[in-house]
Each structure stands twice: as C-alpha cells, then as structure tokens.
Design goal:
61% of the residues lie in helices and 3% in strands.
Length: 566
C-alpha cells in the first residue's frame, strides 16, 4: 500500500528508511497497480484486483482439470464445486504458511493461475507454453517462479523429455523472455553496496517469521497432515491417465520441501532463505488436493462398482465439508487406499497380496470409509455434539449416499442429481459463510478498542503533528497498521522486519529498535526512552498511570492516549 500510493512523495516520509526499502521489492504487480491507484480509488482497485486474481486462478484450475481428462460438463462441474468448497485451498498451507486462496489481495496469490496453467501445458506436451507461464510467475514472485522451474523441469526430464535440442532451447527462451527483466531488476537491487549481510540470517528469521522458513516452527501434527495428504495424492494419481506424470510432479514438489528442511541450518545465507523452500509445501498441497478431487469424481461416476461410487462420494464430501484435521486427512488416505486397484503397476510390489485383499473386500472398506467420514463430520472425536451447519452437512451427505444406492439399484445415472444436490449445498454454505463473515466484521467494527484506535489514527492523520511516534509493542494487531492509517512515521513496529529480506541494510535499525522498545514495560519507561532519543510523541494504552507530569496530553480515546514528550 505505501508503495502503490507512493507515500514517499509526502514530506512526512521523504526520509523514512522503511518506505525507501520498498523500491527494492521486485515484482511487476505493484508497479502496475501504482500507475492507476490513488487515495480515492485504492479500495476499489484492490478489490477488483483481488477478484480478477481469483477468477484467473479458477480459470487456470478449470484448464488443469480439463487437461487431466475430466472434460465432460458433469465431471468438470463436480470437480470445480468441490475445489471451490475445500478448506485445503483456503487460507494458508498446512506447512510453511504459503497463501492459498486467501481473503485479501497480495502479489503471491496472483501466481496461482500460472501454477495451474504451467502444469496443464506441461501435461499436454505444450512445453514452451508451460515455461512461458513459469517465466511470468517469476516476474510476479521470483521464488515461486523458481519452484515451478525446478519442479516442472525435473518432471519434464524424467517423464516428458523434449523431443529435440531445439525444443529444449525454445523452452528456456520462453522462460527467459518473461523472467529476464525481473531477474535484472533483482540483480540491480542485490548488487547495491547496502545489501551486504553482516548478521546471522537465521537469528533474524527466528525473530521475525520462522514459519515460512524453519521446520522448528512447524508443529508435528501439521507435518503429519501434510504427509498424509501428499500420500493420498500419490494414491489418487493411480486413477488418472499418465499416472507417472502426476506421481513425478508431486514427488518433485515434495523434494523442494525436503531440501528446504535442512538447507537453512546448513547454509546461513540470505539467498537460500529467500527461496522460501518450506513454503513450497503450499504447491504440493494444492496439487494433491486437485488430484484427489479428480480421482474422487472418476470414482463417483464409476458405472461398474457401487463400492467405488461410495468411496468417490466419501472423497468428494470429505474435501468439500471436512476441516483440516488429522482425522480428515485419514479419511482421504483410507478412501484412496481402499479404491486402489490391485493390478498394473502396484501389482509388482504386492508380494503379500495386500492390494488383492483390498480389492476383494472393497464393499466392507467402502462402509468403513463412510463411517470414518460421518464420525469426522459430526466431531465425534472432539465435541460429541452437532451444530446446525454440521447437521446440514450430514443431511446432504446422507442424501448423496442414498442417491448413489438408488441410482445403482435402478440402473440410473445419478451424476446430475448429485451435482444439483451439491450445488444446493454450495449455495446454502456460501450464504452461511458470508453471513458469518459480515457478522464478524460488524462485531470487530463495534469493539470499543477498535473504535478507539480508528478515532486516534484519524485524529492524528488530520492533525499537524509530525512523527516519529513511539508505540507499545504489545498491540501488534493495531500497531503494525499505524503508519499507513495515520500517515505518520513510527519509530519501529514488528511488520517492518519484512524489509530486511529485500534490504538487509535495514536490519540494524529494525532489530535494535525492536529489541529496545520490546523491553519497555511501563508508561514511564516508554516516555524516558522517547525523551532520550528525541521522539516527540508517545501512544499509550488507557488508563495512563505512571506518565510523567511533564508530558502533555494531546488526545484521549477510551482505549488509547497520545502524549507529547517534553
């Protein structure tokens, strides 16, 4: 936002070190938005950009689904409904905290359309176009472009193999055509004399945001859920054409994460960290989710076996309705395992007859999958209660299973009926989600502490006061937005630490100030610190007991007070 609105042009920010670093942030997205954004239209521009990004992502997702062989209208409709609803493509990835389909606009999420299209083009043999998509992704977010380049190149060499040297050179040229300008921009930024790293990068990451980079910040349950999901995706690949391609693709994505686990501990290097390899788990999560959905659709529309249809329904309903918990991942894994055929490739490794046993007991295993799904859906393992939305999900699920049995016994095609039922569920569920979101927004706006903060920052923005302002570090939910909301400089806040990644020279100022201010506990200590460093204004929590009498009260709200230090 500060870059897009060009706030450095304001007198208040002409010497602001943090805002000055934003010129080193290399992506084509923000300069494009900067050309059309003003204070008057900034909300509309970001809202439209967010909507356009999401529409493009789903268009790319639909292209991937069609490329994978689900090109009939019913197959495409079922797959897209489930992928729209699944929590596995919402919020942030289980491991690494990579943004999936989040509720606000960032440049990283713009890359999803190019992720899906690059895979779709590579799968269908349009290799040059695949590399063009990777090059565009690089220009939007360099490390995501590098993930795709490494991942898809490995798949191409192992599975696709370019037919001629000329084709291989064309693919590299396609990537370079769009990636080279951004690469040159990055080179100019990192070759500056201010870019030397004279501190421990791993210690900086630990103090700022370790979840993106370090396995030590990942809970074992999250790692287990990701691993089970990837295993489910590998099993799902068995139900798709050219299964070797999908297996190789998922393993290459997993390889990025595996390499990213020890690498930051072995090489304390800025560029190694800035590859964000642990975040590549988000790509693996998305690919596994898509493949499981595709396999679920194929199983659901199976005309030969009722057990396979039931397992397919469990898979699709689990994706659409279950939250991201270990039991939900277990339902997907057990379902994919129960649907695995005992012939072909897997038969070579079936010395003990495990897959033949699975095939012989498919009906019983399908019943087990249904039971596990119902237990997971009703929160049986946690709360032993059923709320309204869970009851609605259960009713829809039972309706799906009933339609399957009825259609199978009557030799009728139940696919469109199932799609209609899922569309009805989608409509009701989305209405419920929108209503819940609006209620939460109203609640947040009416919270006294939030109203107090808006009142304070609005007053400062309309005043003639000039920063920097010293703020308490125990209120990050508000403090990190102060500089943008009030249009005044702050002495330090936690969010500024991100700038170290593209401007290491900023680390000394940020880390020193953050450490000093975080150690301050009382209003008296904050005021003494401000006086010693020539900071004129201090924001404190109300009530302000312990503020020296020499300070002058400028503004009081129910939650905050602003003092001038004398």
């Amino acid at each position: 936002m500060p870059y897009v609105l060009n706030l450095t042009r304001l007198p208040e920010f002409r010497d602001d070190v943090f805002y000055a670093t934003l010129n080193n942030f290399t992506t084509i997205v923000w300069p494009m938005l900067r050309a059309i954004t003003t204070e008057a239209n900034v909300e509309q521009v970001f809202a439209i950009a967010n909507l356009a990004s999401r529409i493009a992502a789903f268009a790319g997702l639909a292209s991937l689904v069609r490329s994978a062989g689900l090109d009939r209208p019913l197959e495409l409709l079922l797959a897209m409904i489930v992928l729209t609803l699944t929590s596995l493509l919402q919020s942030f990835s289980i491991v690494g905290g990579h943004g999936m389909f989040i509720h606000y606009f960032t440049h990283s999420e713009v890359t999803w359309v190019f992720v899906f299209l690059s895979v779709a083009y590579l799968y269908t043999g349009r290799i040059v176009l695949a590399y063009v998509m990777m090059g565009i992704a690089f220009s939007v977010n360099a490390f995501i472009g590098l993930w795709l380049f490494g991942m898809n190149s490995l798949v191409m060499l192992l599975v696709k193999r370019p037919s001629t040297v000329a084709t291989f050179l064309k693919t590299l040229a396609g990537f370079a055509l769009f990636a080279l300008p951004a690469a040159l921009w990055i080179y100019v930024a990192v070759s500056s004399k201010h870019e030397a790293v004279d501190f421990s990068y791993i210690d900086y990451v630990r103090s700022y945001y370790p979840k993106h980079f370090l396995i030590e910040a990942i809970e074992w349950k999250a790692a287990l859920k990701h691993l089970v999901l990837v295993c489910s995706g590998l099993l799902a690949a068995r139900h798709l054409p050219q299964s070797r391609f999908w297996v190789a693709l998922q393993l290459s994505a997993l390889l990025l994460v595996i390499v990213g686990v020890p690498l930051p501990y072995l090489l304390d290097n800025r560029f190694i960290f800035n590859l964000h390899l642990l975040r590549a788990a988000g790509i693996g999560q998305a690919l596994a989710t898509v493949l499981i959905a595709l396999a679920g659709v194929r199983l659901l529309l199976n005309r030969e076996e009722l057990a396979m249809r039931v397992i397919g329904a469990v898979v699709l309903l689990s994706l659409a309705m279950l939250e991201i918990r270990i039991i939900g991942m277990a339902v997907l894994f057990v379902s994919m395992l129960a649907a695995l055929p005992g012939d072909g490739f897997v038969a070579r490794f079936d010395r003990w007859g495990i897959f033949r046993w699975i095939e012989a007991r498919r009906k019983q295993l399908a019943s087990l999958c249904v039971l596990l799904f119902v237990l997971a859906l009703t929160d049986f393992f946690w709360q032993h209660r059923l709320d309204a939305i869970q009851g609605f999900k259960l009713a829809v699920s039972l309706g799906v299973f009933a339609l399957l049995v009825f259609g199978y016994n009557r030799r009728m095609e139940a696919g469109w009926s199932l799609a209609f039922l899922l569309l009805c569920y989608t409509t009701v569920f989305c209405w419920h989600q929108v209503r819940s979101f609006e209620e939460n927004q109203r609640f947040q706006r009416t919270l006294p502490v939030n109203q107090s903060w808006v009142e304070l920052t609005s007053w400062i923005r309309n005043s003639r006061l000039h920063g920097p302002f010293l703020l308490p570090m125990d209120d990050n939910d508000h403090v990190e937005y102060f500089q943008l909301q009030s249009r005044r400089k702050v002495w330090v806040d936690w969010k500024q630490g991100a700038a170290v990644m593209w401007s290491p020279d900023f680390h000394r100022q940020w880390s020193t100030r953050l450490r000093e201010v975080s150690a301050l506990r009382t209003p008296g200590e904050l005021v003494s610190y401000a006086r010693a460093r020539g900071i004129r204004y201090v924001v404190l929590h109300a009530p302000e007991a312990g503020v020296p009498a020499s300070c002058r009260l400028l503004k009081r709200t129910p939650g905050y007070v602003l003092y001038e230090v004398r």
